[in-house]
Amino acid sequence: MDLTYTPEEEEFRVRLREWLAKALPELPARPDPLDWPARRAYDLGWQRRLYDAGYGSLHWDASPTQRLIFLEETELAGAPYVGANFVGLLHAGPTIAAEGTDEQRARWLPPILRGEAVWCQGFSEPDAGSDLAALRTRAVRDGDDYVITGQKTWTSHAEIADWCELLVRTDPEAPRHRGISWLAMPMDAPGITVRPLRTLAGPAEFAEVFLDEVRVPVANRVGAEHDGWRVTMVTLSFERGTAFVGEVVACRRTLGGLARTARVNGRWDDPVLRRRLGRLNAEFTALWRLIQWNVGAAGAAGGTPGAGGSVFKLRYSQARQELYDAAAEVLGTAGALDADQEWTAARLSSLSYTIAAGTSQIQRDIIAERLLDLPKGR
Amino acid sequence: MDLRPTADQRALQASARDLLACRFGRERLRAAVDSPALDRALWRELGAAGFFALRLPEADGGVGLGLPEAVLVFEEAGRALLPGPLVAGHLLAGVVPGAATGERVVGLCDVGADGARLWEHPADCDELILVEGTGPDASAEIGGSDAPPVGAGTDAPPKTAGLDAPPEDAGSDAPPESAGPGAPPEDAAHAYWNASDWPTLAPLRSVDPLTPLARVVSYPRRAPRALDVPRLRREAALLTAALQLGSAARTVEMAVEHARRREQFGVRIGAFQAVKHLCAEMLIRVEIARSAVYAASLTGQSLPVIGAKVLADEAAVRNARDCLQVHGGIGFTWEADVHLHLKRAWLRLEQWQSGAKAEEALAEALLAGEVAV
């Protein structure tokens, strides 16, 4: 048991902190959240600064502890979130780094790191969702290409993406987990139609992507043909394991802000609300410790977070919703119903957390079957 | 940085588990349920194994380990449902002669907390240390993992005047807060040594068949002890949280073992999603409590200890309830051990940090901006 950092890690933290203090004031004003091209430019610009300063590949090309310090410090400093680069930096990049060929790494990773390419995720389908292995989008081999037909949904950032990490069924006869392949699809290929999806949170974050005989070179496949499920599990372990570190730091800060707001507006006099905030303090502190636990475990396992990520993801997604429900209590009736409140927007978006990246119910199945070894079944 | 126990720490924990499996197996557990008087031979065996002297310096006959190791060993005691004033024995080893070896059994009673004034195993204790008052605690440090346990080697009397209350107070019914002009100031915390038969007790039939309880009605203030009471309370809360963690981890195993074996409607009930999800939530509570308890044993801060106690309490109580639910009707019987875990978890929930006070303290810390990473 050890919570101390090595002198090298401490030095890394100090240098990063100093760099952030200089870099952040030079940033341009944040764009309108509804202006997608502006958001793309802003997020890629920030990634370019990170790259030029030598922090570009921290999301995968660093020890889990360094990654933790990076995410913690950038959030504490109020740096921009990965935003449009989310899929490239947190899913596709790490997957290509771990599973791609040298040629594929040389082709796709530098543009992600230099802030030149945006990736989106083509995993979910209208009739699949959390049952990812039920996906039906088909890829038929035709010479050096796959010809792809089908539909993806909940595709974040699709309208501004250059590439898509795409799961396709390459062998319809095989058992459902066996006939899947993982492809990198250029988003400007003929036959792709992107239609934004409006969510209950208001502005469009997602899109539907229709694929009509889209040709993708076989050379764009990462991992062996029909072995896409295993590659996908690597992607998902990153998604569940480490992608939320900065958010937990942000939640802890939000909680402190809520307490101070309640103190100012008189809601602090309500002991039930006070206790709720105190309880959430314990919860988010422990979630931070659980991240540190998982980082230790990931370091020991060669960098890939394991099924422990499901434990974190499940509890965090619930706690985040409780946090913003408590925020509504702090704001009082009018504040809780004011759609222009920053906390209202965060409350609405928190509703997706127990669904995205595998629903809470799926996570419980994973925990029960893989960690507790309970029999399979439904 | 790795919050997980080292190989040495895992080995220590495994040997504690083996020791308890040998000396306090299921038969002895059930015997203790029928006759909860403390097993003195077992207590001396625990002493010989270093359970109480774990953190005393080797020069004083101790094992010389730290709070993280104590937490791991207490987690095992919680798993095994080991009865007795374990926290008191550990914290007062080196303070009360004979406590470290298990020759003498020492009790610890916090009469200053929130009026409950409960004392476990009153008939079994040779000595009693009473603590009272509300000492300043907010963000005090526990001390590094190599710090000696509470009060070790500090026998100088506290400086506060008026501690030598006359022995006639022994029979007085007056509550300690109104003990007259000689009473200590309310914002100070104090500890006293008492003979175990000095306090006046009111009977209380404990809900936990393994833990006899008495309510302390009044007590004499004799023989002041130079103990760091805030620190003693913090360490008691942390070790109690470790016991809760062990119990919570054990009830997950019990539920999972049952769900893998028991068949209903032609299938093992662990295949039903409803049962699976109960078990998964149990594991999540354990993992979150474990992270909090282990980290609190390292950081040495008061707030993490309070938070860890809140989460470990929740894990122990709710896991025992869910374990009972997974066992169905069998779980409701006296023969199943599930109720023993639940009742002990209820008892520990009331000890050292109550839910409301703990949550209020955690809320106050938010205002102060104490959201340490």
Describe the secondary structure blueprint for this structure.
The complex is a heterodimer of chains A (378) and B (373).
Chain A: H1 7-23, H2 36-52, H3 64-76, H4 86-99, H5 102-113, E1 119-122, E2 138-142, E3 145-152, E4 163-169, E5 180-186, E6 192-199, E7 202-217, E8 221-222, H6 228-241, H7 245-265, H8 271-300, H9 308-336, H10 342-350, H11 360-371
Parallel strand pairs in A: 1-4
Antiparallel strand pairs in A: 2-3, 3-7, 4-5, 5-8, 6-7
Helix pairs in contact in A: 1-3, 3-7, 4-5, 4-6, 6-9, 7-8, 7-9, 8-9, 9-10, 9-11
Chain B: H1 7-23, H2 26-34, H3 40-48, H4 67-80, H5 86-91, E1 106-110, E2 118-120, E3 127-132, E4 190-195, E5 200-204, E6 213-218, E7 224-225, H6 229-261, E8 263-264, E9 267-268, H7 273-299, H8 302-327, H9 338-349, H10 355-367
Helix pairs in contact in B: 1-4, 4-6, 4-7, 6-7, 6-8, 6-9, 7-8, 8-9, 8-10
Task: Using brief descriptors, characterize the structure shown.
heterodimer, A: 378 residues, alpha+beta, 4-stranded mixed β-sheet, 4-stranded antiparallel β-sheet, 50% helix, globular, B: 373 residues, 3-stranded antiparallel β-sheet, 10 helices, 10% strand
